[in-house]
Design brief:
By secondary structure, this protein is mostly helical. It is built from 26 helices and no strands.
């Protein structure tokens, strides 16, 4: 089995190079990650601002400021407050399936534009909110925008990028998420200091900035050759586009593979039914497992509630809002490292290294809180900053493993005929478990206390084992030939090896 575990599929290299056209197009499309990142950064910080809590969630504010009998871990336990955060993810979940049809029928570019437009409307409504209903409706519109962007942008990047640079290009989406979150955390740190108490409005309303960039940029994006062939079979335009993005006229081999993939895809009327067939079983499993595992790393405990967490352990409001800036810088830097090395060292190595790093730091944070933080009082400054250091190391581990690779690997493993459906399942599962974590976190924190870090650390151990055993290496493999990695993997080849026999059996049955 050891030989099988290390096996990598033989790669095929198409002609072409990294062109300025591809760099510009992918950089603009990757701005879709700013939407998701901005919201992740903004929501947790705003939810810890006292004027915001006093206006919309007065019960939470009262528990935080006046109730000296309640446990440290239970001060932010409010289903209404968590609904403010999690409503976006339910909207994104529902939207992702609708976005699949739009992406398939009208192209990646229109879907990217729709994401920017919806996020723009949600940001404007949230900034103008006068009651909790307007606040949550704005979150729903933000969720629609993120649903479209998360569904279409990773596909766009994977289809535009040359195979040997696909990891770096696709990871630019995750980098944009990190930059969006970092910008949001910096903004929260600044707006919290507005003495009049309306800084939270600025934080929420500034969502229109990344949304406008994406919506306007989408107008000028070229459509991918894959989508041009799939939607209207415009082979001449698709080949000219492929020649332009590859910087060479000698693209016949890649173009022929695109035509073959498109021909197969057009025989599929119901891709959501098709993906459940045996021959697509590995892709289906990964489209569910990878986004599920990405959410149970515990990263959203940090991303959504880091300011709340540091308020609990004893840092002041301003210092608590500064802590996500520190971890945001660490996460952004580690994602850049992942972009540089992912196509050299591969996906599996980064998954495993990051997994070990996250497991160790979560165990240490859980141990410190269990030993030093009771239901009342707070950590000493020394231990509080030690927790911040450990959280930063944890974020670095996520930043070069499950952060970018959780988006990269699902975007590159699907055949064209199931690609849009597979990406929708990936996005929907991610949104579903993001919602579950966001909605239950404050209650879990109240009941599990420091044990919540052991809970997520246990999942990190499980997912690291899953990658080691079941995820084949996909680096440098052309996206239209990706099915080879499953046929050569020690486990999945047992499931997909019978594709020809199944096809022959179906053909034989049809003739009788």
């Amino acid at each position: 089995m050891a030989v099988g575990l290390a096996m990598e599929a033989k790669t095929t290299h198409y002609n072409g190079r990294m062109t300025p056209y591809v760099i510009f197009s992918c950089a603009m499309a990757a701005m879709g990650g700013l939407l998701f990142g901005y919201d992740i950064g903004i929501s947790g910080g705003v939810a810890s601002m006292e004027p915001f809590l006093k206006k919309f969630f007065p019960e939470v504010y009262k528990k935080m400021k006046e109730d000296s009998t309640i446990s440290n871990y239970c001060k932010f336990d409010s289903q209404l407050l968590t609904t403010f955060t999690s409503s976006l993810y339910i909207a994104g979940l529902v939207t992702s399936f609708f976005a699949s049809s739009v992406t398939r029928a009208f192209g990646r570019r229109l879907s990217i534009f729709a994401g920017g437009a919806a996020f723009l409307a949600g940001g404007a409504l949230g900034g103008a909110a006068v009651n909790v209903y307007m606040l949550i409706l704005g979150r729903v519109l933000l969720g629609i925008g993120v649903g479209f962007a998360n569904q279409s942008v990773p596909l766009y990047l994977s289809e535009m990028a040359p195979a040997r640079y696909r990891g770096a290009i696709s990871n630019s989406f995750s980098l944009s998420i990190g930059i969006g979150s970092l910008f949001a955390n910096l903004l929260n740190f600044g707006t919290e200091k507005i003495k009049a108490g309306w800084g939270w409005r600025v934080s929420l309303a500034m969502a229109v900035v990344p949304a406008s960039i994406l919506a306007l940029g989408a107008i000028f994006l070229p459509e991918t050759p894959n989508s041009l062939i799939q939607r209207n079979n415009n082979r001449e335009k698709a080949k000219l586009t492929l020649q332009r993005i590859r910087g060479t006229t000698d693209v016949d081999e890649e173009f022929d593979d695109l035509i073959t993939a498109s021909t197969i895809s057009k025989t599929i009327d119901h891709p959501f039914q098709k993906i459940f067939q045996r021959k697509y079983r590995p892709q289906l499993v990964m489209s569910i497992a990878i986004p599920f595992f990405q959410q149970v790393t515990g990263i959203n405990v940090v991303a959504f509630y880091e300011p709340v967490l540091f308020r609990i352990i004893g840092l002041g409001e301003s210092a608590s809002l500064m802590s996500p800036v520190v971890t945001g810088l660490v996460g952004t830097f580690s994602t850049i490292i992942a972009m540089i090395i992912v196509d050299r060292v591969g996906r599996r190595a980064l998954f495993i290294i990051g997994g070990v790093q996250m497991f160790v730091t979560q165990m240490m944070v859980g141990g410190i809180l269990a030993a030093k933080l009771g239901d009342h009082g707070q950590l000493s400054k020394t231990y509080a900053y030690l927790v911040l250091v450990l959280v930063s190391i944890y974020v670095a581990g996520f930043g070069w493993s499950w952060g970018p690779l959780g988006w990269l690997v699902p975007s590159e493993i699907f055949q064209l005929e199931i690609r849009s459906a597979g990406q929708s399942i990936t996005v929907a599962v991610g949104f579903l478990f993001t919602f579950v974590v966001a909605q239950t976190f404050s209650s879990m924190l109240c009941h599990l206390k420091s044990g919540i870090f052991f809970f997520f650390g246990g999942w990190v151990a499980v997912m690291t084992g899953f990658v080691y055993l079941l995820l084949p290496e996909t680096k440098n493999m052309p996206i239209e030939k990706m099915e080879k990695v499953w046929k050569e993997h020690w486990f999945w080849k047992k499931i997909v090896a019978d594709r020809k026999e199944e096809s022959n059996a179906e053909g034989s049955a049809a003739t009788h």
